[in-house]
UniProtKB/TrEMBL annotation:
Source organism (scientific name): Rhodococcus rhodochrous J3
SUPFAM superfamilies: Inosine monophosphate dehydrogenase (IMPDH)
InterPro entries for the chain: Aldolase_TIM (IPR013785), NMO (IPR004136)
Gene Ontology molecular functions: dioxygenase activity
Keyword annotations from UniProtKB, A to Z: Dioxygenase, Flavoprotein, FMN, Oxidoreductase
Protein name: 2-nitropropane dioxygenase
Domain of life: Bacteria
Amino acid sequence: MLNTRFTAEFGIEHPIVQGGMMWVGRAELAAAVSEGGGLGIITALTQPTPEDLVTEIERCRALTDKPFGVNLTLTLSINQPPYAEYRQAIIDSGVTIVETAGSDPTKHVEHLKEHGIKIIHKCTSVRHALKAQRIGADAVSIDGFEAAGHPGEDDVPGLVLIPACADALDIPFIASGGFADGRGLAAALTLGADGINMGTRFMCTQESPIHERIKQQIVDASELDTQLIFRQLRNTMRTARNSVSEEVVDILGKGGRFKDVKDLVAGSRGRTVYEDGDPEAGIWTVGQSQGLIRDIPPAGELVQRIAAEAEAKLRSLTADIVVDSVPVP
């Protein structure tokens, strides 16, 4: 058993968390991860209204009696979602764990904690993790440069970012970006994390609500088949490499602005990718960890397999590695 500060704080069996992915974090997947002993996450804004979120939470609760959480991603946009209403729906539904991400979560954290809700804040740098700790987050999920979606602008990979967070933080934290198997979990724990967060790996599970063609493309892809877009806009995003991402990079590289690519990167097109299985229909996010994914198992079995692999790897390392003493001249 891999008992860590994170498993103790959030009442789960294995230190493995399912990322709160747009269009993917639905009740079936979240419940399956939680049933397997990890922490499943429903994505609030996948649901079109706060009332729909309440229904989705009820569906998840009917599928598992184990802890699960809700992701609330805070974005700056022209047509802002009614965050206060989504937040109240989470509170009224009796959810006990929320993952926040994106813009400054202070007012949301304060309100949610007033109702006894534990907060995991997802961020991309040590400085943002420290702020999350100051405002009362119970844990941090730290994204390395390998991650899908928005990995920040510092380009720091997990091998550096994880121990840097371990040195700086007092609260538990989990590592995200590049994790897909037990070797990764063992490495994260060794580097000082209290667990891992996986998005791309959980996209390729039987309960994942995306088209089988997209799952198979991820299995067949390598770590080289992603693309960084929006670099010029200081809003870097890692996506699957396809004709649309190539066009976005070309337009912005020639001096274009967001208005010149907004139709190409519309979220509705990305949703179509997942629903219809056409990988060229729009922009869709995937991490470099796709190069490590070989199968499409049940999500709960995946959680248990990764935990067992990590424990075996840690045991074998302590048994097999011998450090010879070197005499000092």
